[in-house]
Amino acid sequence: MTYRKYKIALFIRVTVLFFCLVALASAFSSMYIYGIIAAGVATIFALNYLYTYIIKRFTEMDDFFEAVKYRDFSRWFNEKSGPEDLRQLHKGFNEVNKTIQEINSKKETQYIYLQKIVEMIHTGIVAFNIETGAVLWINDTFQKILNIPTLQNISFIKSRKPKLYTAIFQTNHVEGNTITIDVDQNKIQILISSSVFKIEKDAFKLIVLQNIDSTLNKNESEAWKKLLSVMTHEIMNSIAPISSLAETLQSNIRLSIENGEEYPLEINDLHTGIESIKHRSEGLMKFAKTYRSLSKITHLNLGTVSVKELFENIRHLMQPSLDRKDILFNVVVDASLEIEIDRHLIEQVLINLLLNAIEACQSNTEPKIVLSAHKSVEGDIFIKVADNGKGIPDEIADKIFIPFFTTKKNGSGIGLSLSKQIMLLHNGTIQIHSIEGEGSVLSLVF
């Protein structure tokens, strides 16, 4: 209906212009001056009337296309005044703008939804322009894993952490790899994968990584539970032969007492049997003593503890051993620093770390151990045991927390494993930084 009205209006204007031109031509043919003037004025008016009518529509369309060009879909065209065909045209423009606004709103909602999902997952994600290095997308998890600020360009990493840049951004991990990286002097294991994609003419690289240390810790904790179950089974298996042997010896002694001539008592057999029971019992006692501490660590008795007071107790306990070995022992701590821990368990961890430090630095001519604590800007509390001893070789640094792994002749391989288990129960971690020949720093992070 609107299009029909537009054709009728256009036809009327063209017809009027046509008759004006005919009248002008007739006036020229008769050379009637007043007729020429009147017909000329009428022709100009009709031409302007037609031109204005057509140009007005094109101007409205130009305005609309200009708004589309600059993605300005907020403009509202008047639908309540003006010619009917213009109002209908405006209505159509408004419908287009409304539809695009709804599409943009849905896209924005989907973008925000996707953004929230990506921010909530524990997987680091970054996408950047391969040529310029400009970051297209990065989430908080990626920044936390690598301990970096918000990136605008990966050149920031290249200039400040070249090794990290090479391992993460430059090396391709199409198949997905597990690598160990150094983040602020602490080694962490990550699972990393990368791919390249194109948007128009630009090539981008997408990198996805995950800190698998926490997963390994969880698996290790489950392994400890399974280990304790196995140990219980092994203890029972050890008790069974002891009980059987004792029962046999008891039976032989009773028979010898009742009828010594028929069942003479062999002293050597008796001695051998008792000796076997003794040795096996001693081994079982040692075994039980080793694992008794593990079986007790099922819950924490948490309380607020002054770190300074904790350190002073440790100093009194360890000072005689340190003095005998002429080891300089320093304590550095803020008097106001407090921490919520199971005091007895953390004391056990610190004593274990200090004993290891004493052994590590006793070959040094000027041995020194520093026990310190501080609170980071993020609110984490670090308790550190640092020594200037022989350090830990790189080839065994990743194994020292594995149960039963030890390089000591008389070591059980339980101390550091137990310490890590205690820290896991505190929702904390043990970090290690060691340089062979220079010393080690073991940090309890709460």
Task: Give an overview of the whole structure.
With about 450 residues, the protein is α+β, with helices and mostly antiparallel strands. It has helices at about 1-30, 35-70, 85-120, 140-145, 155-160, 160-170, 215-260, 265-295, 305-325, 345-360, 395, 415-425; strands at about 125-130, 135-140, 175-185, 185-200, 200-210, 305, 330, 340, 370-375, 380-385, 430-435, 440-445. The chain folds into 4 domains: about 1-105, no CATH class; about 120-210, PAS domain (Beta-Lactamase, 2-Layer Sandwich), CATH 3.30.450.20; about 215-295; about 305-445, Histidine kinase-like ATPase, C-terminal domain (Heat Shock Protein 90). The protein is built from 12 helices and 12 strands. α7 packs antiparallel against α8 (about 265-295), α9 (about 305-325) runs parallel beside α10 (about 345-360) and α10 (about 345-360) runs antiparallel to α12.
